[in-house]
Design a protein that fits this description.
12 helices; two-stranded antiparallel sheet; disordered N terminus; Rossmann fold; membrane; alpha/beta; nine-stranded mixed sheet; signal; transmembrane helix
Amino acid sequence: MTRRSTIGALFVIATAIIQGVCPSRAFIDKPPLSFHRQHGGMPQPSSTQLFVGEGDVQNDADNQTSKPVLVVGATGKVGQRVVKQLIAKDQPVLAMVRNETKAIELFGDSANQSPILELVVVDLGNYENHSEAIEDAISRCDSIISVSGSFRLSKLTDFLPWRLFNPDVSSWADRSHPYFANFKAQAFMIDLAKEHGAKRFVRLTGLSTSFSAFSFVPVIFSTLLSMTSRYHESCEQYLINSDVPYVILRPGGLADHDRSVETTWLQADPVGSCPSPGRVPRSDVAALAIEACVDGAIPKERSMTLGVRAVGEIKPKPQGVKEDGFPTARECIQNAASSALVLEQKQDAEDFVPKPYGVATALFVYSFLALTLKLFSMLVSWIL
Protein backbone atom coordinates (compact mmCIF):
# COMPACT_ATOMS: atom_id res chain seq x y z
CA MET A 1 0.00 0.00 0.00
CA THR A 2 1.39 3.35 -1.01
CA ARG A 3 1.85 6.22 1.45
CA ARG A 4 -0.96 8.21 -0.22
CA SER A 5 -3.48 5.34 0.02
CA THR A 6 -2.50 4.72 3.66
CA ILE A 7 -3.14 8.37 4.56
CA GLY A 8 -6.49 8.24 2.72
CA ALA A 9 -7.57 5.13 4.62
CA LEU A 10 -6.64 6.70 7.95
CA PHE A 11 -8.62 9.82 7.04
CA VAL A 12 -11.74 7.76 6.24
CA ILE A 13 -11.45 5.83 9.52
CA ALA A 14 -10.98 9.07 11.54
CA THR A 15 -13.99 10.67 9.84
CA ALA A 16 -16.17 7.67 10.67
CA ILE A 17 -15.09 7.76 14.31
CA ILE A 18 -15.81 11.50 14.60
CA GLN A 19 -19.26 11.09 13.02
CA GLY A 20 -20.07 8.29 15.41
CA VAL A 21 -19.15 10.36 18.46
CA CYS A 22 -20.53 13.71 17.26
CA PRO A 23 -23.68 13.39 15.11
CA SER A 24 -24.12 15.94 12.39
CA ARG A 25 -26.08 19.16 13.04
CA ALA A 26 -25.11 19.18 16.71
CA PHE A 27 -25.49 22.89 17.36
CA ILE A 28 -24.30 24.27 20.67
CA ASP A 29 -25.35 27.87 20.33
CA LYS A 30 -28.98 28.96 20.15
CA PRO A 31 -30.16 30.80 17.07
CA PRO A 32 -31.13 34.46 17.66
CA LEU A 33 -34.33 34.93 19.62
CA SER A 34 -37.22 36.51 17.80
CA PHE A 35 -38.53 39.97 18.66
CA HIS A 36 -42.27 40.35 18.30
CA ARG A 37 -44.41 43.45 17.92
CA GLN A 38 -48.16 43.52 18.19
CA HIS A 39 -50.79 46.20 17.77
CA GLY A 40 -53.92 45.35 19.67
CA GLY A 41 -54.17 41.60 20.18
CA MET A 42 -51.15 39.59 21.24
CA PRO A 43 -50.76 36.12 19.71
CA GLN A 44 -48.40 33.68 21.36
CA PRO A 45 -44.76 34.29 20.39
CA SER A 46 -43.04 31.93 18.03
CA SER A 47 -40.71 29.62 19.91
CA THR A 48 -36.96 29.46 19.64
CA GLN A 49 -35.61 26.08 18.60
CA LEU A 50 -32.36 24.47 19.69
CA PHE A 51 -30.95 21.69 17.51
CA VAL A 52 -29.32 18.99 19.64
CA GLY A 53 -28.92 16.21 17.14
CA GLU A 54 -29.97 14.85 13.78
CA GLY A 55 -33.71 15.49 13.54
CA ASP A 56 -33.93 16.04 17.32
CA VAL A 57 -35.50 19.42 18.18
CA GLN A 58 -36.24 20.88 21.61
CA ASN A 59 -38.57 23.82 22.16
CA ASP A 60 -36.82 26.43 24.27
CA ALA A 61 -40.19 27.91 25.28
CA ASP A 62 -41.08 24.61 26.95
CA ASN A 63 -38.15 25.05 29.33
CA GLN A 64 -39.39 28.48 30.44
CA THR A 65 -41.53 28.00 33.55
CA SER A 66 -42.20 31.61 34.57
CA LYS A 67 -44.82 33.86 33.02
CA PRO A 68 -43.80 37.15 31.45
CA VAL A 69 -43.63 40.32 33.50
CA LEU A 70 -45.71 43.16 32.07
CA VAL A 71 -43.75 46.43 32.08
CA VAL A 72 -46.03 49.42 31.46
CA GLY A 73 -44.17 52.46 30.17
CA ALA A 74 -41.23 50.40 28.98
CA THR A 75 -39.60 53.13 26.89
CA GLY A 76 -39.37 55.63 29.75
CA LYS A 77 -36.08 56.23 31.52
CA VAL A 78 -37.01 53.90 34.37
CA GLY A 79 -39.02 51.50 32.21
CA GLN A 80 -36.20 50.74 29.81
CA ARG A 81 -33.95 49.91 32.75
CA VAL A 82 -36.59 47.56 34.13
CA VAL A 83 -36.83 45.76 30.80
CA LYS A 84 -33.07 45.40 30.37
CA GLN A 85 -32.56 44.16 33.93
CA LEU A 86 -35.34 41.59 33.50
CA ILE A 87 -33.79 40.36 30.26
CA ALA A 88 -30.44 40.05 32.04
CA LYS A 89 -32.22 37.74 34.52
CA ASP A 90 -33.61 35.60 31.65
CA GLN A 91 -37.11 36.74 32.58
CA PRO A 92 -39.74 36.92 29.79
CA VAL A 93 -41.02 40.47 29.28
CA LEU A 94 -44.12 42.02 27.78
CA ALA A 95 -43.27 45.67 27.19
CA MET A 96 -46.27 47.98 26.92
CA VAL A 97 -45.25 51.05 24.94
CA ARG A 98 -46.87 53.96 23.13
CA ASN A 99 -44.07 54.62 20.63
CA GLU A 100 -43.16 51.46 18.74
CA THR A 101 -40.29 53.06 16.82
CA LYS A 102 -38.61 54.24 20.01
CA ALA A 103 -39.03 50.80 21.56
CA ILE A 104 -37.35 49.08 18.63
CA GLU A 105 -34.46 51.56 18.82
CA LEU A 106 -34.06 50.90 22.55
CA PHE A 107 -34.48 47.13 22.63
CA GLY A 108 -33.34 46.01 19.20
CA ASP A 109 -30.10 44.56 20.57
CA SER A 110 -32.02 42.81 23.35
CA ALA A 111 -33.94 40.82 20.75
CA ASN A 112 -30.94 38.52 20.35
CA GLN A 113 -30.76 37.72 24.04
CA SER A 114 -32.79 35.33 26.16
CA PRO A 115 -35.70 35.50 26.75
CA ILE A 116 -38.16 36.64 24.09
CA LEU A 117 -39.23 40.26 24.37
CA GLU A 118 -42.67 41.28 23.11
CA LEU A 119 -44.04 44.75 22.49
CA VAL A 120 -47.64 45.71 23.16
CA VAL A 121 -48.41 49.04 21.51
CA VAL A 122 -50.94 50.95 23.63
CA ASP A 123 -51.74 54.62 24.22
CA LEU A 124 -52.80 54.82 27.87
CA GLY A 125 -54.25 58.27 27.30
CA ASN A 126 -56.84 56.50 25.12
CA TYR A 127 -56.87 53.25 27.06
CA GLU A 128 -60.50 52.51 26.18
CA ASN A 129 -59.51 52.01 22.55
CA HIS A 130 -56.93 49.39 23.58
CA SER A 131 -58.91 47.56 26.26
CA GLU A 132 -58.65 44.14 24.58
CA ALA A 133 -54.88 44.37 24.14
CA ILE A 134 -54.43 45.53 27.74
CA GLU A 135 -56.58 42.72 29.12
CA ASP A 136 -54.84 40.12 26.97
CA ALA A 137 -51.44 41.28 28.23
CA ILE A 138 -52.47 41.30 31.89
CA SER A 139 -54.12 37.89 31.62
CA ARG A 140 -50.79 36.40 30.53
CA CYS A 141 -48.77 37.83 33.41
CA ASP A 142 -48.49 37.23 37.14
CA SER A 143 -46.70 40.53 37.80
CA ILE A 144 -47.22 44.06 36.51
CA ILE A 145 -44.65 46.84 36.87
CA SER A 146 -46.25 50.16 35.94
CA VAL A 147 -43.72 52.96 35.56
CA SER A 148 -45.66 54.98 33.00
CA GLY A 149 -46.54 58.62 33.43
CA SER A 150 -48.05 61.52 31.54
CA PHE A 151 -46.22 64.80 30.99
CA ARG A 152 -48.47 67.75 30.22
CA LEU A 153 -47.77 71.40 30.91
CA SER A 154 -50.68 73.23 32.48
CA LYS A 155 -52.82 75.60 30.44
CA LEU A 156 -54.30 78.84 31.75
CA THR A 157 -57.80 77.45 31.32
CA ASP A 158 -56.92 74.61 33.72
CA PHE A 159 -57.05 77.12 36.58
CA LEU A 160 -60.67 78.11 36.17
CA PRO A 161 -62.22 77.49 39.60
CA TRP A 162 -64.82 74.96 38.43
CA ARG A 163 -62.02 72.96 36.82
CA LEU A 164 -59.37 73.35 39.48
CA PHE A 165 -61.53 72.01 42.31
CA ASN A 166 -63.03 69.09 40.39
CA PRO A 167 -60.72 66.05 40.06
CA ASP A 168 -62.79 64.65 37.17
CA VAL A 169 -61.57 66.44 34.05
CA SER A 170 -63.05 64.03 31.51
CA SER A 171 -65.59 66.55 30.21
CA TRP A 172 -63.04 69.14 29.08
CA ALA A 173 -59.40 67.98 29.18
CA ASP A 174 -57.41 66.57 26.29
CA ARG A 175 -56.17 63.00 26.53
CA SER A 176 -52.62 64.00 27.42
CA HIS A 177 -53.89 65.12 30.83
CA PRO A 178 -52.50 62.99 33.71
CA TYR A 179 -56.06 62.24 34.82
CA PHE A 180 -56.24 59.66 32.02
CA ALA A 181 -52.81 57.99 31.94
CA ASN A 182 -51.85 58.40 35.60
CA PHE A 183 -55.20 57.53 37.13
CA LYS A 184 -57.99 56.19 34.90
CA ALA A 185 -55.79 53.87 32.83
CA GLN A 186 -54.02 52.64 35.96
CA ALA A 187 -57.36 51.97 37.66
CA PHE A 188 -58.48 50.01 34.59
CA MET A 189 -55.33 47.87 34.73
CA ILE A 190 -55.69 47.36 38.48
CA ASP A 191 -59.24 46.06 37.98
CA LEU A 192 -57.99 43.65 35.32
CA ALA A 193 -55.13 42.54 37.56
CA LYS A 194 -57.64 41.70 40.27
CA GLU A 195 -59.92 39.89 37.82
CA HIS A 196 -57.09 37.74 36.45
CA GLY A 197 -55.48 37.03 39.82
CA ALA A 198 -52.22 38.94 39.43
CA LYS A 199 -49.75 38.18 42.19
CA ARG A 200 -48.21 41.65 42.37
CA PHE A 201 -48.81 45.15 40.99
CA VAL A 202 -45.87 47.54 41.34
CA ARG A 203 -46.63 51.21 40.76
CA LEU A 204 -44.09 54.03 40.52
CA THR A 205 -45.37 57.44 41.67
CA GLY A 206 -43.20 60.02 43.40
CA LEU A 207 -41.95 61.26 46.74
CA SER A 208 -44.06 64.41 46.48
CA THR A 209 -47.16 62.25 47.01
CA SER A 210 -46.11 61.77 50.63
CA PHE A 211 -45.91 65.52 51.30
CA SER A 212 -48.62 67.93 52.34
CA ALA A 213 -50.55 69.44 49.43
CA PHE A 214 -49.33 72.85 50.62
CA SER A 215 -45.64 71.87 50.46
CA PHE A 216 -43.48 73.60 47.89
CA VAL A 217 -42.81 70.63 45.59
CA PRO A 218 -46.44 69.42 45.23
CA VAL A 219 -47.62 72.99 44.66
CA ILE A 220 -45.06 73.53 41.90
CA PHE A 221 -45.82 70.15 40.29
CA SER A 222 -49.57 70.79 40.44
CA THR A 223 -49.18 74.28 39.01
CA LEU A 224 -46.85 73.40 36.17
CA LEU A 225 -47.81 69.79 35.39
CA SER A 226 -51.61 69.69 35.38
CA MET A 227 -52.19 68.61 38.99
CA THR A 228 -50.08 65.49 38.51
CA SER A 229 -49.64 64.90 42.26
CA ARG A 230 -53.41 64.68 42.70
CA TYR A 231 -53.68 61.83 40.20
CA HIS A 232 -50.67 59.96 41.55
CA GLU A 233 -52.38 60.02 44.94
CA SER A 234 -55.69 58.89 43.42
CA CYS A 235 -53.95 55.98 41.71
CA GLU A 236 -52.19 54.95 44.90
CA GLN A 237 -55.42 54.93 46.87
CA TYR A 238 -57.26 52.96 44.18
CA LEU A 239 -54.52 50.34 44.25
CA ILE A 240 -54.51 50.16 48.05
CA ASN A 241 -58.28 49.60 48.12
CA SER A 242 -58.25 47.01 45.32
CA ASP A 243 -57.07 43.98 47.33
CA VAL A 244 -54.43 43.34 44.66
CA PRO A 245 -51.03 42.69 46.32
CA TYR A 246 -49.03 45.83 45.62
CA VAL A 247 -45.82 47.73 46.14
CA ILE A 248 -45.87 51.50 45.62
CA LEU A 249 -42.47 53.10 45.06
CA ARG A 250 -42.04 56.80 45.81
CA PRO A 251 -38.59 57.93 44.68
CA GLY A 252 -37.42 61.52 44.93
CA GLY A 253 -35.17 63.14 42.34
CA LEU A 254 -34.22 60.56 39.71
CA ALA A 255 -30.62 60.40 38.47
CA ASP A 256 -29.19 58.75 35.36
CA HIS A 257 -25.81 57.87 36.88
CA ASP A 258 -25.29 54.67 38.87
CA ARG A 259 -24.16 54.71 42.48
CA SER A 260 -20.96 53.25 43.88
CA VAL A 261 -21.75 50.62 46.50
CA GLU A 262 -18.54 51.61 48.25
CA THR A 263 -19.86 55.06 49.12
CA THR A 264 -23.63 54.97 48.55
CA TRP A 265 -26.35 52.57 49.64
CA LEU A 266 -30.07 52.37 48.97
CA GLN A 267 -32.92 53.13 51.36
CA ALA A 268 -36.54 52.01 51.00
CA ASP A 269 -38.48 53.41 53.94
CA PRO A 270 -41.72 51.58 54.87
CA VAL A 271 -43.26 54.78 56.25
CA GLY A 272 -43.76 55.74 52.59
CA SER A 273 -41.63 58.86 52.74
CA CYS A 274 -38.08 60.07 53.17
CA PRO A 275 -36.36 63.47 53.42
CA SER A 276 -36.43 65.64 50.32
CA PRO A 277 -34.94 65.76 47.71
CA GLY A 278 -34.46 62.00 47.97
CA ARG A 279 -32.22 61.60 44.94
CA VAL A 280 -31.83 58.05 43.68
CA PRO A 281 -30.45 56.43 40.49
CA ARG A 282 -33.07 55.21 38.06
CA SER A 283 -31.29 51.86 37.82
CA ASP A 284 -31.88 51.31 41.54
CA VAL A 285 -35.57 52.17 41.25
CA ALA A 286 -35.82 49.61 38.44
CA ALA A 287 -34.04 47.01 40.60
CA LEU A 288 -36.43 47.65 43.50
CA ALA A 289 -39.45 47.20 41.23
CA ILE A 290 -38.08 43.88 39.98
CA GLU A 291 -37.23 42.59 43.44
CA ALA A 292 -40.72 43.56 44.61
CA CYS A 293 -42.52 41.34 42.14
CA VAL A 294 -40.22 38.80 40.52
CA ASP A 295 -37.64 37.44 42.90
CA GLY A 296 -39.81 36.49 45.87
CA ALA A 297 -38.32 38.96 48.33
CA ILE A 298 -41.79 39.83 49.70
CA PRO A 299 -44.39 37.42 51.13
CA LYS A 300 -47.22 37.22 48.61
CA GLU A 301 -49.81 38.62 51.02
CA ARG A 302 -47.66 41.62 51.98
CA SER A 303 -48.30 45.03 50.40
CA MET A 304 -46.43 48.24 51.12
CA THR A 305 -45.65 51.82 50.14
CA LEU A 306 -41.98 52.77 50.16
CA GLY A 307 -40.18 56.09 50.14
CA VAL A 308 -37.00 55.56 48.12
CA ARG A 309 -33.67 57.39 48.08
CA ALA A 310 -29.93 56.79 47.97
CA VAL A 311 -27.95 57.50 51.14
CA GLY A 312 -24.31 58.46 51.38
CA GLU A 313 -22.17 60.16 48.74
CA ILE A 314 -24.48 61.00 45.86
CA LYS A 315 -24.20 63.89 43.44
CA PRO A 316 -24.51 66.84 43.72
CA LYS A 317 -24.22 66.55 47.52
CA PRO A 318 -24.47 63.81 50.16
CA GLN A 319 -27.81 62.89 51.74
CA GLY A 320 -28.23 60.84 54.89
CA VAL A 321 -25.59 58.34 55.93
CA LYS A 322 -24.75 55.14 54.13
CA GLU A 323 -25.56 52.97 57.15
CA ASP A 324 -29.22 54.07 56.94
CA GLY A 325 -29.61 51.91 53.84
CA PHE A 326 -28.52 48.62 52.32
CA PRO A 327 -26.09 47.81 49.50
CA THR A 328 -28.62 45.97 47.31
CA ALA A 329 -32.24 46.35 46.24
CA ARG A 330 -33.07 42.87 47.53
CA GLU A 331 -31.88 43.69 51.04
CA CYS A 332 -33.89 46.93 50.96
CA ILE A 333 -37.09 45.16 49.96
CA GLN A 334 -36.62 42.33 52.46
CA ASN A 335 -35.96 44.76 55.30
CA ALA A 336 -39.01 46.85 54.42
CA ALA A 337 -41.24 43.78 54.13
CA SER A 338 -40.26 42.63 57.62
CA SER A 339 -40.98 46.00 59.21
CA ALA A 340 -43.97 46.40 61.52
CA LEU A 341 -44.59 49.79 59.90
CA VAL A 342 -45.90 48.01 56.80
CA LEU A 343 -48.74 46.51 58.82
CA GLU A 344 -49.75 50.00 59.97
CA GLN A 345 -50.12 51.31 56.40
CA LYS A 346 -53.35 49.39 55.75
CA GLN A 347 -54.91 50.81 58.89
CA ASP A 348 -53.89 54.33 57.88
CA ALA A 349 -55.44 53.78 54.44
CA GLU A 350 -58.85 53.18 55.99
CA ASP A 351 -58.82 56.75 57.32
CA PHE A 352 -57.71 58.23 54.00
CA VAL A 353 -58.88 61.74 53.12
CA PRO A 354 -57.84 63.19 49.73
CA LYS A 355 -55.35 66.01 50.04
CA PRO A 356 -56.64 69.48 49.08
CA TYR A 357 -54.48 69.88 45.99
CA GLY A 358 -57.06 72.18 44.40
CA VAL A 359 -57.07 74.56 47.37
CA ALA A 360 -53.27 74.60 47.63
CA THR A 361 -52.83 75.27 43.92
CA ALA A 362 -55.56 77.93 43.89
CA LEU A 363 -53.92 79.84 46.74
CA PHE A 364 -50.63 79.89 44.88
CA VAL A 365 -51.95 80.60 41.38
CA TYR A 366 -54.56 83.20 42.31
CA SER A 367 -52.15 84.99 44.65
CA PHE A 368 -49.56 85.05 41.90
CA LEU A 369 -52.10 86.41 39.39
CA ALA A 370 -53.27 89.08 41.85
CA LEU A 371 -49.70 90.16 42.51
CA THR A 372 -48.94 90.24 38.79
CA LEU A 373 -51.99 92.42 38.09
CA LYS A 374 -51.05 94.74 40.93
CA LEU A 375 -47.51 95.16 39.62
CA PHE A 376 -48.83 95.69 36.11
CA SER A 377 -51.23 98.41 37.25
CA MET A 378 -48.43 100.11 39.19
CA LEU A 379 -46.21 100.00 36.10
CA VAL A 380 -48.95 101.50 33.93
CA SER A 381 -49.58 104.25 36.48
CA TRP A 382 -45.87 105.05 36.62
CA ILE A 383 -45.59 105.22 32.82
CA LEU A 384 -48.65 107.44 32.46
